[in-house]
Amino acid sequence: MAQSTNKQVIVISGGSRGLGRGIAEQLMASGHAVATFSRSKTDFVETAQAANPDNFFWAPLDITDAEALKLFVNQVYQKFGRIDGLVNNAGATLDALLPITTDEEMERTLALNLTSSMRLSRLVSRVMLRQQSGSIINISSVLGVRGFKGVSVYGATKAALDGFSRSLARELGSKKIRVNSIAPGFLATDMTHGMAQARKEQIERRTPLGRLGEVEDVAGVVEFMLSDAARFVTGQTIVIDGGLTC
Ligand SMILES: NC(=O)c1ccc[n+]([C@@H]2O[C@H](COP(=O)([O-])OP(=O)(O)OC[C@H]3O[C@@H](n4cnc5c(N)ncnc54)[C@H](OP(=O)(O)O)[C@@H]3O)[C@@H](O)[C@H]2O)c1
């Protein structure tokens, strides 16, 4: 296992499964500490808690609960004494044509994908401002970069996250805090599990690299963007989609 000489403390929202889990595993394998939360506990969380209690922290919470989020950030700071990176990863798709989308669905998607990430960024940026350093990564999507039928509300939340990254990068740059978006293409996770086989094959045909993405394809870029190697990169949206949108 490659151990980093420069251990970082990274907060990841929704690190119990899917992409968040993959990012957590990659960062811990490099010797970093990870603090994460989700509504339900998974076997991965159970194992990481037992195997790596000094470098892994998990709390059960719903990201749309503002008080619980505040308590979580305080707990992370108490445990680790600093926060070097934040990955706003928790999110959910809304696959629905707009004319039949309900207010409740719209509001839930905005609260989960957008408002809660902005709120968590606000909490963590206060810690980073005291440290005068940090890196924030917003996980957006190719659906925020290009239009696709049936995902207008989801796509709007992801495009908004990209805009959030750009302006926040300008706001925090002088304090050596970087803010970027990472926009994955279609990944093989629970989120795309229910997608029709014909749709998956269509995406593969339209992708120059000829396949759906894997969590590992994205996790490595997240690690790079959190690292000092990316110290002059801020306010950008990095698309990782095998060329689907090129
Ligand atoms: N999969 C793709 O093809 C794809 C493509 C582009 C972008 N993305 C983006 O990548 C991110 C991760 O997607 P994924 O595919 O890994 O999703 P996933 O497999 O469904 O995992 C989502 C994670 O977020 C947590 N989460 C969901 N709702 C939450 C809530 N209200 N409060 C706290 N935690 C919550 C989940 O845990 P609990 O359910 O237990 O709370 C889980 O840990 C999302 O922002 C997504 O939009 C995904």
Automatic annotation (TrEMBL):
Residue ranges annotated for the Ketoreductase domain, each copy included: 8-218
Family label: Belongs to the short-chain dehydrogenases/reductases (SDR) family.
Lineage of source species: Bacteria, Pseudomonadati, Pseudomonadota, Gammaproteobacteria, Alteromonadales
GO molecular function: oxidoreductase activity, acting on the CH-OH group of donors, NAD or NADP as acceptor; quinone binding
Record keywords: Oxidoreductase
Annotated InterPro entries: KR_dom (IPR057326), NAD(P)-bd_dom_sf (IPR036291), Sc_DH/Rdtase_CS (IPR020904), SDR_fam (IPR002347)
GO biological process, one term: fatty acid biosynthetic process
Name of the protein: 3-oxoacyl-ACP reductase
Source organism (scientific name): Saccharobesus litoralis
